[in-house]
């Protein structure tokens, strides 16, 4: 663990230096930290990576975790020397442009600034939240840090936010801006926090925008896409040696494109890394090997076992500062660990491509339901639905037809959301009555629905893409990759989540992202000469892992899951009905799908997180 933090003590007692010292323990126990304090405020960096820096200027003190790709341009703008650190460069930008300088940054970053002269504390994160910050404010002051663990050292307490529990069960991750700890907020992507004597406010400085050109041309857009993506991949490689930079390679469209474009740079063989499993339905090493062979990469593979998972799980769970139930984190961790063992320091990842260019399976499959909506109303309500209502069959084709019609009658967004856990099960069925009361009527789709309805778009697909950038990418996939990479001792970069790529994608018509039932139509056209045909035509799979099978067949995994979730300790938390948890295990044993096993996995990671974070003593905290 590592990161940055900041404090402004407004209670008149000073003590910023001691507060920062305590917060640092929550960031990185035992690691040497550097702080810059001008009472009653200051900043600190607990550095593990070279992107984590601190600088004091005549105007302010600044700490950052910044991996920027336009530093040369920024140095020309400010006149900063070529030898100035990134933190010093950011201080120059702050002195010249004030807090709005973040709008000029390209790359991943989190930063905090304490300006004593103006008595102002400022914090910001990048456009997609590749680097994260949390904050808390009370009568004593304002506290900002990379991790919730650091804020716990300030005495914020460990009261659990019940809405976060519901979010994790439904989405495998909590949704910002609220966090698992009551009162602690997460600064959302593309936002800045500004605190002064007049109070604290959060405001948006960037958001995804969709504005299709009136006279667009498919050929021109295809050529421009190839150019924009290739430029981003080159920028994310920087001038780093290919001995130090590698790439995740799942065999999918995104990762294969990145490896292919890296191979064109003429800087030696690309190091690519893939994870497989003995369980064949989850093993996609064949596609990764096709890409590796096509691009002549130095390809590394590893087969993850149930025993690997069992051994790594406690450390993996603890690396997240909130409960995290996305099981693909296991594959990500072992892939990052494999890269670290090969001497790689930075990995390029393909996250974001699906959400920008229309690659997720549900973008196309939902059109199957839209076919029913296109039938005449008389045929729907006068023939099909009455007939399905009187037929006695529950299974087989009739059962499938009933389910199809039921989903087809939902709105498009409700239909996509209906597959989530707390949409398939009522809260009263899952939660203990007392815990249900503490939710206060919270609707688990409240935040996703808000994203969908307020999206700067008019068509369903674009609204869904906007939602997925916020929830799937911002709250789940990015924390997964960054946390697991850092646990392995490396960093990750995301070429598709470059601002220039994202803004270009907003100009592409929805009908060229998903054309008919073909996902990523324009993207595949742009890179059809680069990618092997097998990869362009393959069905998306992703980094799934066989946790359901492991919990059923591996003794250690099975016993850990049962002993943990059915223990008195877990039951006394009062979150879930005991009967529901027991029923999960019973249904898992008899069901051939992964549904119940994947659900057990989410319950398990949540309980293990509580045991390591909530139940363990925090040590010394600020009075």
What is the average per-residue confidence, as pLDDT, rounded to a whole number? 93
Number of strands: 19
Shape: globular
Determine the N-to-C terminus distance. Answer: 24 Å
Low-confidence stretches: none
Number of helices: 29
Strand content: 15-25%
Q: What structural class should be given to the helix and strand makeup?
A: alpha+beta
Side-by-side strand order of the widest sheet: 2-3-1-9-8-10
Biggest beta-sheet profile = 6 strands, antiparallel
What is the alpha-carbon Rg in Å? 25 Å
Percent helix, as a range, is 40-55%
Describe this structure in words.
There is one protein chain. This protein is of the alpha+beta class and 623 residues long. 48% of the residues lie in helices and 16% in strands. Helix 7 links the parallel strand 13 (245-248) and strand 14. The mean pLDDT is 93.
In short:
With 623 residues, the protein is an alpha+beta fold. A six-stranded antiparallel sheet has the order 2-3-1-9-8-10. It has a six-stranded antiparallel sheet with strand order 4-5-6-7-11-12. A five-stranded parallel sheet has the order 15-14-13-16-17, sandwiched between helices.
């Amino acid at each position: 663990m590592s990161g940055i933090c900041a404090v402004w003590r407004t209670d008149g007692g000073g003590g910023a230096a001691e507060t920062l010292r305590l917060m640092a323990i929550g960031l990185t126990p035992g690691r040497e930290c550097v702080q810059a304090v001008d009472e009653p405020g200051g900043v600190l960096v607990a550095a593990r990576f070279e992107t984590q820096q601190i600088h004091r200027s005549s105007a302010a003190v600044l700490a950052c975790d910044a991996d920027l790709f336009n530093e040369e341009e920024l140095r020309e703008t400010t006149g900063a020397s070529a030898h100035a650190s990134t933190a010093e460069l950011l201080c120059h930008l702050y002195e010249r442009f004030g807090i709005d300088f973040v709008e000029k940054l390209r790359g991943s970053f989190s930063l905090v600034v304490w300006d004593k002269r103006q008595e102002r504390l400022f914090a910001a994160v990048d456009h997609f939240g590749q680097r994260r910050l949390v904050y808390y404010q009370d009568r004593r002051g304002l506290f900002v840090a990379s991790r919730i663990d650091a804020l716990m050292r300030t005495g914020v307490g460990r009261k659990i936010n019940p809405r976060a529990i519901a979010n994790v069960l439904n989405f495998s991750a909590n949704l910002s801006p609220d966090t698992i700890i009551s009162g602690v907020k997460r600064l959302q992507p593309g936002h800045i926090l500004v605190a002064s004597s007049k109070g604290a406010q959060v405001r948006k400085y960037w958001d995804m925008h969709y504005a299709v050109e009136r006279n667009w041309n498919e050929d021109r857009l295809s050529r421009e896409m190839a150019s924009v993506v290739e430029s981003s991949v080159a920028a994310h490689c920087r001038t780093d040696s290919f001995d130090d930079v590698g790439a995740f390679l799942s065999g999918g469209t995104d990762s294969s494109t990145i490896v292919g474009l890296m191979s064109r740079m003429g800087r030696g063989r690309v190091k690519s890394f893939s994870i497989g499993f003995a369980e064949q339905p989850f093993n996609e090493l064949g596609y990764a090997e096709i890409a590796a062979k096509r691009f002549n990469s130095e390809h590394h593979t590893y087969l993850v076992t149930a025993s690997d998972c069992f051994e790594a799980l406690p450390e993996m769970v603890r690396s997240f500062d909130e409960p995290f139930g996305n099981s693909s984190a296991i594959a990500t961790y072992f892939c990052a660990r494999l890269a670290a063992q090969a001497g790689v320091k930075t990995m390029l990842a393909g996250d974001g491509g699906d959400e920008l260019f229309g690659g997720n399976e549900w973008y196309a499959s939902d059109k199957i339901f839209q076919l029913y909506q296109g039938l005449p109303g008389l045929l729907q309500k006068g023939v099909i639905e009455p007939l399905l209502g009187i037929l006695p069959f529950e299974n087989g084709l009739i059962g499938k037809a009933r389910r199809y019609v039921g989903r087809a009658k939902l709105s498009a967004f409700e239909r996509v959301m209906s597959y989530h856990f707390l949409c398939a099960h009522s809260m009263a069925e899952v939660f203990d009555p007392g815990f249900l009361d503490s939710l206060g009527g919270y609707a688990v789709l409240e935040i996703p629905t808000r994203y969908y309805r307020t999206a700067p778009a008019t068509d369903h697909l674009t609204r869904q893409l906007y939602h997925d950038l916020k929830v799937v990418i911002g709250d789940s996939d990015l924390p997964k990759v960054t946390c697991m990479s850092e646990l392995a001792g490396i960093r990750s970069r995301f070429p598709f989540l470059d601002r220039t790529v994202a803004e270009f994608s907003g100009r592409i018509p929805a009908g060229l992202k998903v054309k008919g039932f073909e996902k990523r139509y324009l993207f595949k056209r742009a890179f059809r000469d680069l990618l092997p045909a097998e990869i362009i035509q393959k069905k998306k799979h992703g980094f799934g892992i066989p946790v359901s099978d492991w919990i059923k067949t591996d003794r250690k995994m099975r016993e850990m899951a049962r002993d943990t979730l059915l223990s008195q300790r877990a039951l006394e938390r009062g979150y879930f009905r005991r009967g529901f948890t027991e029923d999960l295990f019973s249904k898992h044993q008899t069901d051939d799908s992964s549904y119940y096993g994947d659900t057990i996995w989410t319950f398990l990671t949540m309980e293990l997180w509580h045991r390591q974070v909530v139940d363990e003593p925090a040590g010394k905290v600020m009075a």
